[in-house]
Amino acid sequence: MSAGPSRVALFGATSDIAVAYGRRCAEAGARLVLVGRDPAGLVASADDLRVRGAAAVEILHADFADLAGLPAVAEAAWAAFGGLDLALVAYGALPDQATLEADPAALAETLELNFVSPAVLADRLAARFEAARAGTIAVITSVAGDRGRRSNYGYGAAKGGCQRFLEGLRHRLAAAGVTVLDIRPGFVATKMTAHLPRGGPLWATPDRVAADIARAVARRKAVLYTPWFWGFIMMIVRALPRPLFHRTRF
Amino acid sequence: MTGSAVFASWGNRLRIAHPVLRPATRDGAAAMVAGGPPGGLLAHGNGRSYGDVALNPGGALIAMRRLDRFIAFDPETGLLTCEAGVTLAEILAVLARPAADGSGWLLPVMPGTRFVTVGGAIANDVHGKNAHREGSFGRHVEAIELARSDAGRLVCTRTENAGLFAATLGGLGLTGLILSATLRLRRVAGLALETEDIRFDTLADFFRLDAESADGWEYTAAWVDCLARGPRLGRGLYSRARHAAGVAAPPPARAPRFSVPVTPPVSAVNGASLSAFNALYLRRLGSRRSRRAVRPYGPVLFPLDALGRWNRLYGPKGFFQFQAVVPPQAAEAATAELFAAIAASGQGSMLVVLKRFGAIASEGLLSFPMPGTSLALDFPDRGASTRALLARLEAIVMAAGGRLYPAKDETMARASFEAGYPAHAAFRAHIDPAFSSAFARRVGLLGDTVR
Ligand SMILES: Cc1cc2nc3c(=O)[nH]c(=O)nc-3n(C[C@H](O)[C@H](O)[C@H](O)COP(=O)(O)OP(=O)(O)OC[C@H]3O[C@@H](n4cnc5c(N)ncnc54)[C@H](O)[C@@H]3O)c2cc1C
Ligand SMILES: NC(=O)c1ccc[n+]([C@@H]2O[C@H](COP(=O)([O-])OP(=O)(O)OC[C@H]3O[C@@H](n4cnc5c(N)ncnc54)[C@H](OP(=O)(O)O)[C@@H]3O)[C@@H](O)[C@H]2O)c1
Questions:
Q1: Where are the annotated coiled coils located (chain B) (predicted)?
Q2: Residues with Cβ < 8 Å from B281, sequence gap 6 or more?
Q3: Which listed site, A47, A82, A148, A221, has its alpha carbon 20 to 30 Å from A57?
Q4: What is the pLDDT of residues B222-262, one digit of tens each?
């Protein structure tokens, strides 16, 4: 495997996509800091990554819904190996849209966890990466952020907000040579989608997505649709004229 | 994390919807076993068993592939602990990476496909082409972490819960859920293999070649032309291999590069393709009697893994696999009789593996490998005539004092199971009351209703 980033922080390290990506980094000998809220899951993942070849693995506990705690989390992750080459922000939650329509507190929480929290975290990290004048900030948003749709516009709006935030951050960090990668997966078979009927050509494995992320990081891409065909699908979805769009149900 | 999904046998003859549990952690898996839903449980590994051992109609399946974490590896001793859903392909990819001098860690026992889980490899106590040297998979298992519905989580070793340990090696998933296991990897001086293929004309030649290869060659197996009749009956190719000290080889890929995308409407394996295959395969060496090479072990030990989902080529009706072992004193005569019966039936088999098992005893109460000669075959399902052939082969094996392999079986009679596995009575005491399988009910290990 080609040498990837050698100091990696995974925020939401027990996410299935983050686990798959972390394994690739570990097999290339990286040092990893795992940040998350599930102590047993983090230890299990750390053991796995060590056997796979990680040069070092550190664990940090954090609840990303706690916005006030984010600056300290960013600092601790940065400090674990005296700097980072890559930060992957992978946490998120996909509640049922009907729940969000019935419960304003749940809607606010969803917007916070999927938009405000990653934006604040990425911004804290940005200052560090900017000073180091190198590295990659990668955030998993979603194809759901590309157009508001009845079936998931609460989650989708947060992801869309994140996309816009990353666009601006990228603009800012370009001069410092820091890459900002916006990862937009389609349907991925993970814990998040375990309740949905899965299978069929549109569904990808976390490992497939992780492979695409590794390639996008190496090529310093700005926006990644994964798998690639989602780029075309979303181009069409975005281009659908409103009268036609309103007759769809997805 | 429950739902329902269709699970198929690898032979594709059985396709059955089951309620399915998909534990993501060992704790979660143990909790599912403790609260075993009425109707019975059974672990499902990677579904590479050809028949019904990994199916549980009427009950639920516990899909193990999410328990895919490594837990610890000691590069001093080669002891590896990992979750039961880790595949052998993954172990090779992660740990069998060659050192600068070509040496490396390797799984001591590898079946003909690397796409099986550790749990599945233990539950069928699988064997490889080096069975005569290394015994079966279970011999290299040091510890098993088992979840039982009646006793919680147990560690089983040769000294702790030893009875349950022996029952779980080759235990067909019936002794509880394997959560994790500790295996002893083997250090080889070169990961690459020195191989030799040799043509032989008669079964007697096979037995002679095999006896002569036993000491110097660690991986041995033969292919036999099932379509040959009369004086040509018994011709084939003998393949032997051993590690080439100092020569490195990369681990084989984690997934096949090419896969059969859909099931063709009719079997691609038929009389014409079979004759063509056999004719070509036999001429692999051209006019030479033998050929030597140094090659990576992947294509040598896992030839079928080159093409993903090759089982689909047998079409919607699927196929039967047959594998049996007959004891040494009866081996030559019974093997000849088996080939004669196949030739007489006109139903050839593309895959043919003739292989000798050595004297190393398998520890599992229901382990398949025993000293003798083993024969494995594939038959497209042609209905009654195929079943008649399978019954005939079964009769020959049982008359010779042999046994059939549950991992490959869909048809053996209860009497054949009991005769082939005399420890079945002792085994029953170790069955977890919440577990069951189609196989166990079929051969009378359990009553015929789900418990
Ligand atoms: C191309 C090919 C070649 C093969 N070559 C060989 C060979 O050379 N030698 C050989 O011995 N076999 C061979 N096999 C058979 C294969 O190795 C076995 O069937 C193996 O057990 C399959 O493992 P699996 O993970 O797919 O398990 P499955 O087929 O899904 O399950 C097999 C059994 O293991 C049990 N099980 C699975 N996981 C657990 C667990 N965690 N806890 C408890 N029980 C569990 C299941 O209940 C079931 O009884 C071959 C199969 C194929 C397709
Ligand atoms: N799966 C898809 O189809 C899909 C599609 C597009 C985008 N995405 C995005 O991909 C990313 C990764 O998700 P995934 O698919 O890998 O699903 P996942 O396995 O469910 O991962 C989500 C992770 O977020 C963590 N998390 C949620 N709230 C948290 C909090 N308050 N504090 C700490 N951690 C928290 C969860 O932690 P625990 O493990 O502790 O629960 C979980 O590990 C998410 O941003 C998701 O929105 C997924």
A1: none
A2: B223, B225, B237
A3: A221
A4: 999 988 888 888 899 999 999 999 999 999 999 998 888 88
pLDDT digits (tens, 9 = 90+) for B352-399: 999 999 999 899 999 999 999 999 999 999 999 999 999 999 999 999
Residue among B126, B307, B320, B366 whose CB has most ligand 1 atoms within 8 A, to mutate: B126
- Indicate yes or no: pTM above 0.90: yes
How high is the pLDDT of residue B374? 97
Q: Give the residue extent of every domain in chain A.
A: 7-245
Measure B37 CA to nearest chain A CA, in Å: 19
In this predicted structure, what is the pLDDT of residue A248? 84
Q: Which of B44, B49, B259 to mutate to test the pocket of ligand 1 (most atoms within 8 A of CB)?
A: B49
Torsion of CA B344, B347, B349, B350, to 10 degrees: 120
CATH number corresponding to B2-65+431-442:
3.30.43.10
E strand residue ranges, B96-216: 104-106, 141-148, 152-156, 177-184, 186-188, 193-200
ipTM summary value: 0.93
From the CB of residue A171, how many other CB atoms can be counted at a distance below 10 Å? 10
**A155 noted as active-site residue:** yes
Q: Which CATH superfamily is domain A7-245 in?
A: NAD(P)-binding Rossmann-like Domain (3.40.50.720)
Range B192-413: architecture per CATH: 2-Layer Sandwich (3.30)
Distance CA B161, CA B362 (A): 18
| 21-50 of B, contacting A, C-beta below 8 A | 22, 24-25, 27
Secondary structure of residue B159 in the 3-state scheme: coil
Amino acid at B384: A
DSSP string covering B249-285:
-PPPPSS-SEE--S--SS-S-SHHHHHHHHHHHHGGG
Region B70-188: CATH code:
3.30.465.10
Separation CA B408–CA B411 (nearest Å): 10
* Pocket around ligand 1 at a 6 A CB cut-off: B 10, 42-49, 53-54, 64, 84, 111-113, 116-117, 119-121, 123-124, 126-128, 172-173, 177-178, 304, 407, 437
Question: What residue ranges do the domains of chain B occupy?
Answer: 2-65+431-442, 70-188, 192-413
CA pair distance A106, A111, nearest whole angstrom? 9
Pair B158, B84: CB distance under 8 Å? no
Q: With an 8 Å Cβ cutoff, are B71 and A53 in contact?
A: no
